[in-house]
């Protein structure tokens, strides 16, 4: 049996990942989450999902990844999946020190924990935002990084710390650069959630810019498949791997798809583009295909339809 520590496991991606991992009785999962109160945008409201899990192979610990004393008392871990972070690009411009403290110091503490407890597998949630203003699309893992937000720079630091600990202490470190993840249990501050909320409640939807900014949207079930592969990946000691759909879609197009799914017309309010936002993101996913056998199964229409079906059941 493998004992997997999932930090930030009460969040959006973490909850989905834990539910998937626990489908296999050979996995045991410890979720460590502080239910982040420092940054209200980061509070996903998903804690109830993990708290409701009744499975002898599951343990929920409420606590902070920076709490070295708490970490010392977590025993028997084989693999760390590090998702806990101050999330969101825009608020990182307002409170950059929180991002540095949580995302950089926090990642270092966990790597030190891995070193001290001889944990040899560490999977890190990095972000497409590290590519920033790089205009060579689709982005390959070895492209130059041109971050334009404090959030992005903390993710680069996390990858860099991982490289150092991997080199010095033989910890296998796999960073997954995630591209705009959406789906059930996602945070209320994410655009897709706001979009369906606006459609459902006949509210105005704010578009930052003219709606031509494009994102590589990735359905959460495809993302958690990539995490499961990375958890058991053994071939090399350090890898950085994009996890996206491989297609960039304009926000205007996403709005049209959402309208067709819901059968409603939305009222748009166009406002200024936000500092820190990039115009387009698009992943090259050949490395993920090759190393993780990654094969995203959900088109944007599939994923948004599933998300809308899930919303209807809430
Ligand atoms: N959602 C996306 O589109 C996306 C894209 C790129 C990267 N990522 C990364 O993936 C990871 C998970 O993202 P998410 O969307 O599930 O975010 P989320 O905000 O829903 O979940 C993050 C969780 O981490 C917890 N947390 C934060 N700081 C903590 C700390 N110091 N100690 C313990 N727990 C702490 C929060 O309480 C929250 O439950 C994050 O690292 C994020 O940066 C997400």
Instruction: Report low-confidence residues grouped into runs of 5 or more.
Output: 39-43
CATH architecture: 3-Layer(aba) Sandwich
Using only C-alpha atoms, the radius of gyration works out to 19 Å
Cα(first) to Cα(last) distance is 34 Å
How are helices and strands ordered from N to C?
EHEHEHEHHEHEEHEEEHEEHEHH
Q: What's the CATH topology name?
A: Rossmann fold
In this entry the ligands are: nicotinamide-adenine-dinucleotide
Strand order of the largest sheet: 3-2-1-4-5-6-11
What is the overall pLDDT average? Answer: 94
Strand content bin = 15-25%
SS elements, strand count: 13
Count of runs of 4 or more consecutive helical residues: 11
Q: Which structural class do the helices and strands define?
A: alpha/beta
Q: Using the coordinates above, name the CATH class.
A: Alpha Beta
Number of domains: 1
Largest sheet: 7 strands, parallel
Shape: globular
What would you say this structure looks like, in words?
With 314 residues, this protein is of the alpha/beta class. It has one domain: 3-Layer(aba) Sandwich (Rossmann fold), CATH 3.40.50.720. 38% of the residues lie in helices and 19% in strands. The protein has helices spanning 12-21, 47-51, 68-72, 91-94, 96-116, 150-169, 191-200, 220-231, 251-262, 286-292, 300-313, and strands spanning 2-7, 27-33, 58-62, 79-82, 121-127, 172-178, 181-182, 204-208, 214-215, 218-219, 238-243, 249-250, 267-271. It has a seven-stranded parallel β-sheet, sandwiched between helices. Strands 7-10 form a two-stranded parallel sheet. Helix 2 (47-51) links the parallel strand 2 and strand 3. Helix 1 crosses helix 8. The chain is globular and about 55 Å long. Bound molecules: nicotinamide-adenine-dinucleotide (NAD). Nicotinamide-adenine-dinucleotide binds at residues 7-8, 10-14, 32-36, 42, 44, 64-66, 83-85, 87, 102, 106, 125, 127, 178, 180-181, 187. InterPro entries: NAD(P)-bd_dom, NAD(P)-bd_dom_sf. Residues 5-305 form the NAD(P)-binding domain. This is NAD-dependent epimerase/dehydratase family protein.
């Amino acid at each position: 049996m493998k004992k997997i520590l999932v930090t930030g496991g009460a969040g959006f991606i973490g909850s989905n990942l834990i539910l998937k991992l626990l489908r296999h009785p050979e996995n045991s999962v410890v979720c460590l989450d502080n239910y982040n109160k420092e940054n209200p945008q980061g509070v996903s409201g998903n804690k109830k999902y993990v708290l409701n899990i009744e499975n002898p192979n599951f343990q929920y610990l409420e606590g902070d990844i920076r709490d070295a004393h708490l970490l010392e008392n977590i025993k028997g871990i084989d693999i760390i999946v590090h998702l806990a972070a101050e999330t969101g690009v825009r608020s990182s411009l307002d409170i950059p020190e929180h991002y540095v403290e949580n995302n950089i110091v926090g990642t270092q503490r966990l790597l030190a924990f891995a070193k001290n407890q001889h944990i040899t597998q560490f999977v890190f949630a990095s972000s497409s935002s590290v590519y920033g203003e790089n205009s060579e699309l689709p982005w390959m893992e070895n492209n130059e990084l041109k971050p334009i937000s404090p959030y992005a720079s903390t993710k680069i630091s996390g990858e860099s710390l991982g490289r150092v600990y991997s080199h010095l202490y033989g910890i296998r470190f796999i960073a997954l650069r995630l591209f705009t993840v959406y789906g059930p249990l996602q945070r209320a501050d994410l655009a897709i959630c706001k979009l369906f909320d606006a459609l459902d409640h006949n509210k105005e939807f704010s578009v930052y810019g003219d709606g031509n900014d494009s994102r590589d949207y990735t359905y959460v079930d495809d993302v958690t498949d990539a995490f499961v592969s990375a958890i058991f990946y053994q071939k090399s000691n350090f890898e950085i791997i994009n996890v996206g759909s491989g297609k960039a879609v304009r926000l205007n197009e996403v709005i049209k798809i959402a309208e067709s799914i819901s059968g409603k017309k939305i009222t748009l309010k166009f406002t200024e583009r936000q500092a820190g936002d990039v115009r387009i993101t698009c992943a090259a996913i050949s490395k993920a295909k090759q190393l993780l056998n990654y094969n995203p199964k959900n088109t944007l229409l599939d994923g948004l339809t599933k998300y809308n079906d899930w919303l209807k059941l809430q």
